[in-house]
Amino acid sequence: MKVLVVNAGSSSLKYQLFDTVSSDVLAKGICERIGIDGAITHKVPGREVYSADIKMENHTVATQILVETLCSPTLGVLKSMDEIEAVGHRIVHGGAYLKESVLVDDEVLKKLEGCLDLAPLHTAAHLMGIHGCIEAMPGKPQVLVIDTAFHSTMPPEAYTYALPKDMCEKYHIRRYGFHGTSHRYVSGEMIKILGKPAEDTKIVTCHLGNGSSISAVKGGKVIDTSMGFTPLDGFIMGSRCGAIDPAIVPFVMEKENMTPDQMNNFMNKNCGLLGVSGGLSSDCRNLGEAVEAGNADAKLAIDILCYQIKKYVGAYAAAMNGIDALVFTAGIGENRDEIRSAACKNMDYLGLKLDEEINAKTKLQGDNVCISTPDSKVKVYVIPTNEELVIARDTEMIVSGKR
Ligand code: ADP
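Above: inputs. Below: predicted complex with adenosine-5'-diphosphate.
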């Protein structure tokens, strides 16, 4: 089945066209600056990249343009729009209402609108993307694949914050967790590699990118995860602070005369690796170079990251009474061997031994790579994530009635 996977942001629309039989990406690209002026970048494997400035007033026009591009005799890979059998949308927050991938209908759209309060920017953008696709491709089945869904199996002791019960209920405050589609993909791959029944597996998955989260996956199901009510919770990220003493929040707001919005923006955009490195960079590539050049702030930022990863692995090993496997994925997890190495130091208490030589060589591989020694009690793997493939597969399963 040919499935169009769409990831709609407020002014952008990323897309990938999948053949779900071969799992091949037939074409992918991005429509950007929607509602401002508009541009498309379109890539087909083996062909030159196509870029053009095209006016895109809204997400409907952007969708029309991307479909025209996919069907163009010179740039495209399809004869007509009819070849696209379904559309799968990446949804960041499903709130309390959407706990699994689902076919879009009026009721589902109402439930998604109910998430506006929890993730206003993302949800508003997703709704524009969905309505854009409905208008540009009328009658085409649309499926939502939700980033919080994989975490919905957490028990109450993992998802409940120590706030009054009635307040949590009134405002739907709880740990939701994010990057679920990625944690689901890499833990699924790891279960296949372990070669034993999913019920018997205990895996910690580390999705380390600009935004980062770590999950404890027991028996194929998430029992805890580091991100919380929002993607700000957890550990140090590119420009997000992760968990800090909550009393710091009103303290800084008062001292700096900040509104809640300004404080929220500050914690998301000005902190994390960027903040600790004294504003140097949120990107580990730049920080790595600065560390080599002897920059102490950059070193501290990276040291905090490695230390916090180690603490999460330890906490989740405690929660699951040990682990069989530790997985690294996303930009940092797949490419920064020095961070994997530092995070995995002194884990003999778990019987975990990294093969430093293989680890140092493992970057931009594109394949699943074992980076632990053969006698390590915990298998450590680098598994490149593929959230879009999960979205395409879920969409196919739902549309073809297999689920
Ligand atoms: P996002 O969360 O925005 O999807 P990524 O998963 O691409 O981000 O991760 C971004 C981080 O990964 C950055 O800190 C960057 O330094 C690092 N990274 C990404 N690609 C590479 C690479 N090829 N080599 C080294 N580091 C990389």
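The mean pLDDT is 96.
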